Amino acid sequence: MSLDNGLTVIVVENHKLPRVSYSLSLKNDPIMENDKVGLVGMAGQLLGRGTKNKTKAEIDAAIDFIGASFNTSGSGMFGSSLTKHQDAVLEIMSDVLFNASFPKDEFDKILTQTLSGIEASKTDPNSMASNVAAVVNYGTEHPYGEVPTAETYNNISVKDCKQYVKRYFKANNAYLTIVGDITMEEAKMKAEKYFGNWSSGKVADVNYDTPEPSSEPRVCLANKDGAVQSVIRITYPVDNKPGNADATAATVMNSILGGGIFSGRLMQNLREDKAYTYGARSSLGSDPLVASFNASASVRTEVTDSSIVQFLYEMNRMVEEPVSDYDLMLSKNSLAGSFARSLESPQTLARFARNIQRYDLPEDYYETYLERLEAVSIEDVQRVAKKYIRPQNANIVVVGNKDEINEKLLEFDGDGEIEYFDAFGKKLEDVSSELPADLTAEVVINDYLNAIGGMDKIKAIKTLEIHMQMDMMGQKINIDQYYAEGDKFYSKVGNDQMVMQEMRFDGTTAQSGGMQGSQKATEGPLFDQAKSQSRAFDQLYYLSDGYMLELKGVDNLDGEACYKLSVKDPSGNETTEYYSIKSNLLMRELAVVEGPGGQQMTTTTDFLDYKEIDGIMFPHTIKTSGAMPMPIEMKATAVKVNPELDDKMFMIE
Questions:
Q1: Of residues 471, 469, 507, the one with CA closest to residue 490
Q2: CA atoms of 238 and 421, how far apart (whole Å)
Q3: What's the pTM?
Q4: Minimal CA–CA distance to 261: which of 348, 328, 344, 349?
């Protein structure tokens, strides 16, 4: 039914439990966000963060008091509660819809959290793979190919969020789906009472060109130096609209190939047989504009090419060979069980009801799903495999250590030229061949030392004091570092309430302290760590002292051409360092460290915002990611060259 203002109301009665849910969802297709990618999500989050009548804290308290749930998004809002509390939930929903205040302080919180997530995604291989896949599948002129970055988020304002909600949150552009312990008459009364005054208005139609798959296989590589694994995603756009005649057979086909069940062929091949990965799966999306096929896994670096061979083998086998009766039965049983479990969620029922209306599906479309599932035959599976499984048109997206894998990937590319992308799907020029023939690693290091002030000025530093600060779980944490001649070093991490970590080195003995207790060492890992930290300018020692340097080439670092060096210290620890060709300054350092459970992980440290202090260039922003769940950003608050230091601070107790 529809209200006078154009709001489409869908009601699904279910009196088994005394609960009812209300879901508002917009009808319009996704929009292009252009230089403000992320706007829709930001506006959706901010929408529920306060009204003219209630703060966010008051909304949260009201929802918690009645044991309800409530959330907003860029495409609508959802509320659910016991039947007796539904009016309380509806009052909150309508208050948010009509009186949202878009508070600036909440906007700032959302932006800060989002930018922190963006920073983390720069080095997260799965995020990188998703970004590259979006761009190469759909192109940047389609909303599905837009990738949010820190820059696009920083372009968004509170005003933009208000305008988005004003433009698209209109009664005639929305469904109100009501599911649960309610009658049709009651539902209509509630809809009229709480949403009948919602204004309607024109929402512009948008049309996009349908992305076409590549005419030949493309290898699209995002480099992650130091990575011990490669993320592989074999993907391409497909036309698979909701409710099409092949939908159920296509779901069965993908389930057999790798659609989430452990018996999927990809899982059995790449995990159980070859031991290349912990998991390999595939998905076949459904979308009214354009969907995509994806087959993915994280594999050991050394078997990246072998894994792609097996992905393509299983995809081709799906097309060329009929599946077995056993595989068909197993897939059907798994899908039937998943479907039955999904019916326990009111949000699923709401989505089913809304899909019937939105995509003009038969009224009994979901009621007859199990019948259609049972009717799928071996011939149907092979027919849809030929339609949707197209390795010859695949975008083979790989995130991994370029130096280790790029040559091995050439055989999979149709034209023999690999395309390179950054973490956010921006295409990069391959600058690896631009290395001057007479350039050496030693020259790069000398250029760096000259760029930060010169050897004479650096060696004239007798003492050094550096103070930095970072945010950790809402607290300000100070990092204080003191250096003196003779490799003397003292550092303290903490604040006025606690000392989290201390490190002392007097040139011969290391001592650690803080929350982990006190330890001393004259050799071993603690000693090596303290000795390394005691050197404010590591590069002074690179040309002697047992270091091994190798100039690996030229690489793109966030769009800037950099010399890439492999540095192995006397203890055998290896790092990869990037030096800007333009400024000669150190921009990034990568190191493989041992994480929880002995698992290897790559840490990334970026050195930014260089400033001159007494003739020496120091980075005033240092960002580290990989070692913690979220990136750490340290800002210099003070740098002092040759201050007077009390020698007692370096003394081992």
A1: 507
A2: 23
A3: 0.84
A4: 328
**372 exposure class (CB count in 10 Å sphere: 0-12, 13-18, 19+):** middle
The count of other CB atoms within 10 Å of the CB of residue 318 is 26
The answer to whether the beta carbons of residues 271 and 400 sit under 8 Å apart is no
57: its two tokens: 């804290």
Euclidean distance between the first and the last CA atom of the chain, given in angstroms as a whole number: 80
Residue 598: the pLDDT is 60
Bridge pairing between strands 174-180 and 395-400: unpaired
pLDDT score for 595: 60
CA distance 207 to 29: 9
Count CA atoms within 13 Å of residue 374 on its CB side.
Answer: 5
* Cα 336 from chain centroid (whole Å): 32
Distance CA 29, CA 19 (A): 31
Which of 255, 219, 224, 249 has the alpha carbon at shortest distance from 235? 219
Q: Decide: helix, strand or coil at residue 10.
A: strand
User: Would you say 5 and 172 are in contact if contact means Cβ atoms under 8 Å apart?
Assistant: yes
Give CA–CA dist 378/252, Å, rounded: 10
| Residue 376, φ and ψ in degrees, nearest 5 | -65, 130
Helix (H) or strand (E) holding 339: helix 325-342
Residues contacting residue 478 through CB under 8 Å, at least 6 positions apart: 467, 468, 469, 492, 493, 494, 495
Where helices occur in 366-440 by DSSP H, the ranges are: 369-375, 378-388, 402-409
Give the model's pLDDT for residue 58: 96
| Low pLDDT (below 70) residues in the chain | 430-434, 515-516, 594-599, 627-629
Is residue 151 left, alpha or beta, with left meaning phi > 0 and alpha meaning psi from -120 to 50? Answer: alpha
- Which residues does 106 contact at the CB level (< 8 Å), separation at least 6? 46, 49, 50, 56
Task: Map tokens 């918690």 to a residue.
Answer: 64
Token pair 């706007």 in the structure block, residue: 39
Q: Assign 3-class secondary structure to 133-183.
A: HHHHHHCCCCHHHCCCCHHHHHCCCHHHHHHHHHHHCCHHHEEEEEEECCC
Inter-residue contact 566 to 574 (CB < 8 Å): yes
The 3-state DSSP class for residue 72 equals: strand
Side-chain-side CA neighbours of 114 within 13 Å: the count stands at 22
Both structure tokens of 438: 């007479």
Strand-pair partners of 296: 233, 281
d(CA 291, CA 278): 26
| Lookup: tokens for 346 | 């009111």
Kindly state the DSSP code that residue 249 receives in the 8-state scheme.
H
The pLDDT of residue 627 is: 66
* Number of continuous H segments (helices) and E segments (strands) in the chain: 19, 25
Per-residue confidence (pLDDT) for residue 413, from 0 to 100: 95
